[in-house]
TrEMBL record:
Domain of life of the source: Eukaryota
Name assigned to this protein: Ubiquitin-like protease family profile domain-containing protein
Molecular function as annotated in GO: deSUMOylase activity
Entries under PANTHER family matching the protein: SENTRIN/SUMO-SPECIFIC PROTEASE, ULP1 PROTEASE FAMILY PROTEIN
Coiled-coil annotated spans: 218-252
Alphabetized SUPFAM superfamilies for the sequence: Cysteine proteinases (SSF54001)
Record-stated family: Belongs to the peptidase C48 family.
Lineage: Eukaryota, Viridiplantae, Streptophyta, Embryophyta, Tracheophyta
InterPro entries: Papain-like_cys_pep_sf, Peptidase_C48_C
GO biological process: protein desumoylation; proteolysis
UniProt xrefs under Pfam families: Peptidase_C48
Keywords: Coiled coil, Hydrolase, Protease, Thiol protease
Domain Ubiquitin-like protease family profile positions: 386-568
GO terms for cellular component: nucleus
Amino acid sequence: MNSLLQSRHERRIQQSPFKWFLEIVDPIELNMKMMKQLVCRWVSPHQSFRVRQEMVPFNVLDVVMTLGLGVGGLEVPFDQTVVGKVGELFNSNTITLKDMITIFNNIVVNEDVDVNVIEDSLSISGVAAVLQLWVYERLSLYGNTSLKVFPRILRFRSLDYGTPEIEVLFQKGEVQFDWYLSSSDHQNPIIRAALYMGAVGTIDEAPKKGDGSYESALASRVEKIKRNNQRMRNLKDEIAALRKELSHQRKMRKFEQYPSVHVAGQGNEEAAAGAAHEAAAHVEAAAEQGAHEEVLPEGSGHATPFYDRDADEEVGDEESVEQPRTFIDIGDDEEAEVNVVVEPMVVEPLYTFVGDPRETVDVFMLYFLVTRKGIVHSYVCEIMGQLLTTKDCNSLRHRECVDNMVIIFAATMFMYFEKRSTGSIKRIIFSPMFTTHFLEDNKKRIAKRHVWQLSDYQAYFRNDLVRVEDLLNVDWVFIPVVSSGHWWCYALKVCSMEFFVIDSLAKGIRGRSGIDRSIAKNIQQFWGLLKTTLEDSKIGLNFQEAKIPVQPNTFDCGVIMMKVFELWDGEDKYDGKSMPNYTTEQLTEFRKKYLIDWILDEDNVRRFSILKLFGLL
């Protein structure tokens, strides 16, 4: 197309936001198999694509980095303005994911349908290019950072992958959540506008990590740390001078009344010295408290120390240091009283909150704020890299069905907390993505189904928490399932190879018996691979139905499953049942407790920022 443009056309385009397109020389090739994979992996409630076990968001910044367009303009209502070839495919009714896949398949296989630039029609070519470049960035497919220019479309590369390779990329590829920015990118006005960067490069009003502003936020925080380090060094100089003076006075045995402690007479030299030491200790404690405040950007992953260790050497009571000194003139007359006012420097901490927030935070208000609808998207919890957002928290409201992101987070937290408290994990929980992927694959014809290998199962556990080999040495393995909007789970007792189905609906959902058999067969084969003895995979599991009470409503099945992960042990010790008969009110309290415990946990690196955001500090 560029070769057909005349000079007047080029001059006009140079004045528009699309001026970058004039530099595109090679034609853009699209991989339709990749586009189909993205359509299948789109999770609408989260505005994200499912990559491995993560939800990777797709937002305006992705369009900015890909096409170099600004962030201004008016919002266009899609349902009211879609026209042309693509517009004919849609109507005013709700479009489901299945409808989208069917329509997409029809477009791909029908060569008579033109989806390129057509007059008076909505083209999907530009969107497809953005998505393909998004895949390049998020799955780290660039050979080196020199290829990552702005906008990315200037270095567009086609994805020459087949369906099997694409599936492996999304299941095992390394996920990058942030766009790579060079030093020149930080000065680009389009990028600065997209990242809400101020005139001096600070982003105090910008969102946190995950929306592209993380690198600039880190630079701002590092500069603040440097300034605070200098203030801390000044404090240590004051402390060193005070210690030297106290040491000198001890040797001369001439102690006078310390200004902040009332000690009378010459017989109280030791008491005065103790008071002076106590005051010095108080100043030093204040310094230490300021030093240990949380000053790094949350989730940065950088262990930048607060002190400059080379500059801060230990100073003993008797040591002499070359530092600016502060002296108290005690005079020649031993009977005279000296009133000297010494005011220690007060260092204002970056966080004013000190102590355990569990003791002071209004937990009811916190739960209300993070679960209300229409809340600005932000991260409320990050423990060992596992994230929970405000959108995820919406599903923990009363009468809401718990979504899969909450179950994924809960499964990881149960295992992490168990390991933190006991040093080992005896109750291992699969990610619910396992059964989702397996059941989708099981709908295919046998010849096209995925052949499961041992390495495939590792994708459903955190590598830094659980390895598949660990499953041989645990007590229980739980496998959560969601189908037709209902949660239930399977439990394997490792020592006896008993296999339980735990369902809070008495008869389960329609078709569950077929799912039971398929899951049991897969776990049976998995165990054979795990023990490297194929004979074990031919031994049928001892299948049993767990006796638990029927759920008291239609929406708390997910909460009941989280309680199963936490305490179910197969013993019928609750009036002949293996779980208590919870009421709706009790299950609502469990929702609150889980969420509050996660947010206020000491390992949540976003604990103070979210409390500060909601004004609860």
